Amino acid sequence: MTPETYRNPILNADWSDPDVVRVGDDFYLTASSFGRAPGLPLLHSRDLVNWTLVGHALDRLEPAEEFATPRHDCGVWAPSLRYHDERFWIFWGDPDQGVFQVNAPQIRGPWTRPHLLKAGKGLIDPCPLWDDETGEAYLVHAWAKSRSGVKNRLTGHRMRADGTGLLDEGKVIVDGDRIPGWFTLEGPKLYRHDGWFWIFAPAGGVETGWQGAFRSRGFFGPYEERIVLEQKDTDVNGPHQGGWVRTPSGEDWFLHFQQRGAHGRVVHLQPMRWGPDGWPVLGDDGAPVTAHRRPALPPQPPAAPATDDDFPGGRYGRQWQWTANRRDGWATQHSGDGLRLTCVRSTDTHDLRKLPNLLTQRLPGNPSAAEVELRLHSEEPGARAGLAVLGDAFSWIGLQRGADGTVHVVHRFAEGVAERERDAAHPCLAPEGRVRVRIEIGAGARCRFSYDLGDGPIPSGPVFAATPWRWVGALLGLFALAPVGPGHAGAATFTQFRITDL
């Protein structure tokens, strides 16, 4: 690699279903956040290659009671990010409720509370368009068969200019069943270019699909279609679903995801140009690029979304999300450094997948090691705290207070079909109630666990292969728990969380 080139993926973690917009010299990106809170992550870049996480647009999922417990594959699906009328707008589909939008004068907010634009089951992947030529506003969305019984089609609406409501009952504007060979048409992004209405939409499924482009002189069709990006003879499976953005100098670029198992959907950047026939050409004549010349933008220092955290004053960085809406008292601020998590009492201590009080961040896509120091302050028998890899299957390593008052290092796991965890290694006494735990994440998201009581690292248990949560990437998580009982159960403190490349 040279300073003039970049290598894909540019975001090597689960920034699923990305969309992008430029405002002035700045680029902004959002992504699916499903049932985690806060939701709707907001990333910023000046060069389309180096990105930082600057906040979230959704503090809590609504209705709040629906997301008081984990709903890992529900919530915020495939948002669209736009800038109109000096405001940022994000539209997304909740497959169980309908199409929502929030907006804000600045990317860091304040963002409005979610507004339900169209209620219904299975309404997903919405995208608005404000047509500067006519003053009309439109909305397109896809369908989730799991909720509606409908898939492989895109529905279009006229929309109120203020984004608060729709002006008609909607019409199917692209029916994938009528296009030979097309299936699972979804994720539309709507644009106006060169006198055409354009819909960039993926099809074919996340593992092996392709990126399509559709164009029509009128919003409601008829549309003609073309495949504009597909795997071909590259190693990038299913390159699709993302957004088009143009730089101030007029260069065109396309950001999309690639499904990578437990690592989720990593983000790639493709060059884009308009061919002599007026159709977009993505990547290397329709094949994704591994490396390419950087966009012609001012050079920027290397940057990536934060992962490490010293938890100053007990506060955690914006890279962390809870597995459900946050409740007061889970994490407490204090005068020193370190994350102090309350040992939340639960009937589900045997299954981390059911717990809302896990503080998580994305599993890194490159071989890495995650480690953190842990102290268990609880005197409650059965109280525990640790570092986990979480998906359909999970595994964790940490500390647990025994019935005799001693504290042990424990390492547990559960398979995807198992209803409760079991030991992955024999418990080991932790005389001082503290330990440094480590998870090394290798190729294929194969995880090796170890712990250090002060005399050097000791391997623990067999290799654990991380799994996604259905189509949501696996997560790293910190937690503190206690069995059901009366009174406060104490806390655990985590310090010096680090993720390093291997």
TrEMBL record:
Residues 309-499 form the Beta-xylosidase C-terminal Concanavalin A-like domain. CDD domains: GH43_FsAxh1-like. It holds the Pfam family Glyco_hydro_43. Residues 288-313 are annotated as: Disordered. Keywords: Glycosidase, Hydrolase. InterPro entries: ConA-like_dom_sf, GH43_C2, Glyco_hydro_43, Glyco_hydro_beta-prop_sf, Glycosyl_Hydrlase_43. Belongs to the glycosyl hydrolase 43 family. This is Family 43 glycosylhydrolase.
